[in-house]
Batch of 3 targets.
Target 1
Amino acid sequence: MSGSAIVVGAGIGGLAAAIGLRRIGWDVTVLERSPEVGEIGAGMSQAPNALRALDALGVGDRARAAGTPFFATTNLRDPSGGHLMRAPSGGPHPLLGFHRADLHGVLRDAVPPESIRTGMKVTGFAQNAEQAEVQTESETFSADLVVAADGVHSTARRLLWPDTPDPAFWNYTVWRGIADLDLAANEGCMTLGADRYFLTMPLTRSRVYWALGAQAEAPRVRYPDEREAVRERVADWHGLVHGLLDATPVDRVLHHDITDLDHAPLPTFVNGRIALLGDAAHPMSPDLGQGAGMAIEDAVVLAAALAETRDAVTALARYDRERRPRAQWVAKAAHKNGHDALMGSALNRRLLSLTLRLMTPAVFAKVSAQALDRLWGWQPPALPGR
């Protein structure tokens, strides 16, 4: 079927949804709260499942051109700089690293500017048997359906799922930054500490994304100099970490607390003609690198469901059946990975370190591929081209 849709939010998930819906012939209006369409953030990775979803949307080649292959998940180091595991020379690099703004730009360029309305703060939703409605401070918009891709602190989720608690903080905080440094792809790495980690991801144009994840006793604790707060937490770590901090302007350091719905996953992603997508539906920790990837998958499955039935409500119900089990499984797995990395027992950390030191890179790559098959092996449904 074809019809009209309103997408709330012009982030990665919202733009992916708009691209998918336009690809199947729908008329789409995107409502963005900010006065300009852009992406705030630092770096991110996309795994094979997300790249295949981008292919289904018709933007895979452009996305790959904006990314950089990296090996962080198979280059594991301890705080002194010693290697727990090295990526095999010439081995595969299934992950692509992006500056968040670069991937967002690829998606933004695939949506006509006239389809995006900025400065639109959403205040409410309504629906009947025929249409759904989005109310903003200045206008009301109606369409056959609404896709709410309005992020972790979703207005749609709060208003339409009022019994659902807010995403919960679980003693986990992350600093992120972009360093001006030229680093080869095989120098990307993950440094594992007792209750923290430091990710290093080379990007295009002689930039490097880094992230420090660490335990935190309370949310919303901020520092006058966030870069110095990072430096204090890695004071005795290896030289690459400090070189990256030295090459990062203070104003490029972001600090965010990690929250998710692991304690109370949603019973459905759909309310009549209104569907949640991405972080609005399934906020998750960054520990599997799948937050944006799940949103892109959501967009493809939603478009495929709408392409195959004339009834929007039936299509959204199918979207919920297909997406909720997978997305909530990934969110739960990410939560567990983060918890184990930052809050696991000292004995388990020593056993992991010993196992990694004894395992050859080839065996590690094989074991990792098997463990990740359920996540990375996802195949998108085909979308009809326009």
Target 2
Amino acid sequence: MTLLSRHRRYLGAMVAGLFGFLLLSNLIPDPLASMQWRVKVAPEWEFSRKLDLWFRNIGIFIQDNFGFRATLPVLRRELRAELNSPDSKPFYAGRDGQLFWGREQTPAQSAGALVRTANVERFVDMLGEMQRILAPLGTKIVVALPPNAQSVELEALPLWNDALTYPTTEYDLALAGLKARGVTTVDLRPVLKASPAPRYLLTDTHWNARSSILAFNAVMVAAGHPGWQVDPAQVVGQLEPAPRGDLLRAMRMPPEVKEEDFRLNLPAKASKPRFDPVLRSLNEHIAFRSVVRDYAPEGLKVLIMGDSFTAMSWPRLFANAPVKEVAWMHASARVTGNCDFSFDDVKRYAPDLIIYARTERFFPCYGDDWPKGLPRLWRSAVPRNVAP
């Protein structure tokens, strides 16, 4: 009589085979891997120096090129596509190969399947309170939320998205609430939908350069300064090859589409960005430090409160505006945070115009997030029904 029944022996053999395959996979080159080293060696180096560098980086080389680490995500994607199954974590492909971000509940937010009413109301309260305090000081606020790609590139979304039909979205709710409070807003979704494709980068979460210009012009009109617009025919150049986007890099997959973006021919009227001691509160990421660009000795002061959608381009687009300086600050103290910027900095800077442009997926105010120095509208720290 054996110690193990027959089915257990089969199961044990299968488990042993699986572990053996996993161990063996580290010796089999991945067919989709590039078989390249992350470190570069110069041709003139001695062989001993090259060998030392290769030896010290052999672990990373095996990680990149063995174990089917590039093949498995591709197989998973193809299986889901064959089953017509939505894959929303953390990214998924549309009908034309465009990649869409799936985290932060972005697909459901754009479709209207997710409407966090209390969080949106908290956002509306925040902007309304800011306007109540700043309007007597001569500051105008314009709210323009850069939309998710899913809110604009509708024809590029996967087929399963066609079944998502809901009457309203958080974006709609926010614009209606701000309008009721007298805050100037501009809906960037129809602005971008009216433009020809492509509107967003194919392998990245961000809009392309042309969409950025069109959105900026719409904001200038909403702010009451149509003369501050820039001419797209002069500023927006031809489509050119661009670096692989953040989604494709995160997926560690071979590119199925070539990334392209429009060349921007921006006028060099503004100075180089400088730090301003008034804008003391800094974002946690070094790339999102508060900066100021000087334009003229006299004129209006503009403050853009945004994120990566506006950081590099919008502060440089005021060549046609009679402005003294344009400042940019992140609308959050954290890269993925919400509504926790420093209102004390805003008051100290004393801008004539504030452009609030936090991207759609990050605009609702969660939990206890609230600007530093802005009076709270509730007795308790966190109102009921606010947690996401």
Target 3
Amino acid sequence: MTSLIDIAYRIRAGEVSAAQVIQQTLQTIRERNSAYNAVTCLLDERALKAAAEVDARLTRGEQVGPLAGVPFGVKDLFDLEGLVTTAGSVVLKNQPPATQDAEVVRRLCAAGAIPVATLNMDEFAYGFATENAHYGTTKNPHDTARLAGGSSGGSTAAVAAGLLPLTLGSDTNGSIRVPASLCGVWGLRPTQGLLPLQGVYPFAASLDVVGPFTSTSADLACAFEALSGQSVATDQDVSGLKIGRLEGWFAQDLAPELVAGMDRLLAACADVRTVTLPEVARARAASFVITAAEGGALHLGRLRTQAMAYDPATRDRLMAGALLPAMPIVHAQRIRSWFRDVLHDAFRDVDILVAPATTGAAPRLDQPTITLGGKQVSARANLGLFTQPLSLAGMPVVAAPLAPAPGKAAGLPLGVQLIAAPGKEATLLAFAQAMEKAGLLGFPCADTLLTEQA
């Protein structure tokens, strides 16, 4: 799959029509999606109609937007006009169809992009694995015997497999950052509240954020511009940025190759400092409590009448959250406020913080666990070890894939989190692009690897 920037350029230049791009995209998904189970529904009629409109506007010499004809997919909790928003569940199947697109979908469409598919997810976004009892498990395109991560696993797998150049996902405790890391794609969790949540089915509303996935940092910046309306100058000089390497909690149980990749990345930075945050375990616990309480409260009415329709793993966690007493929730919110201040203080001394996104490569489907402190624990619950605490601060985070080690085969993807103060997406994206150009970030799509091996 060509980058979204290239697709839009070729369509505007008349080298290919939007209709041809959409037809090829739909055909590719039909031929290859069964290997990954990333896509849950194709939007053929809508997509082909929109492509014809783009081509007609080009013929008339009209402006078509920076993403003209670019196909994209959405995690199945974004409203699409005329479709029931399932949020990865059968519980909502009898709800009325959406009367309009989610606001962020409308923004991409206004920029010329064309929605072509809905994408698989953990039921109600509660998980880090995209193991869905109703719609099946999404598989990692780099090794289909492994998890794609979640809860936006369909969104990341679609990009990693080269099915789509752009997808939308959501992140409450790491649902953009975890699957991006495991699938080797770029993802952005923007500053809390920057992008509207209108038309997006909530999980834990006070933590929910939506953002894009792409295969390159330049594409990520382009998508962010269309979604936010902000102009991102990614050509700014980043050589003087002060970089903080998160240690302590964020240095535990790391795969050696992940440590080596982070070492290579930070060796290219002129000013690197070590940052250790206090009480990260408590912050993570607070995130667990807040998420469980808000999710449980949202679903309590349906749990009373339709409990057996839920994925059993999701149901049990939501019911537990609904039964939480008030005091732990109040205490968790106090920790959240305190930890947010701690993170804000860290940016008095650094411009960007760097942390691992996960402890290592994607777990196997037949052993969905990770090792923490010498013990095997559930991947579905614990892949967010490094992402959950950072969610409390509401700061922008770029999920960036580490580049393969020089002279070695690509292997499995590994990813890092690049974190900045609120509103500093432009700085993050500029740093990301500079590091990708230096060959330190960025991972080939699975279809590229297959082509090279053929």
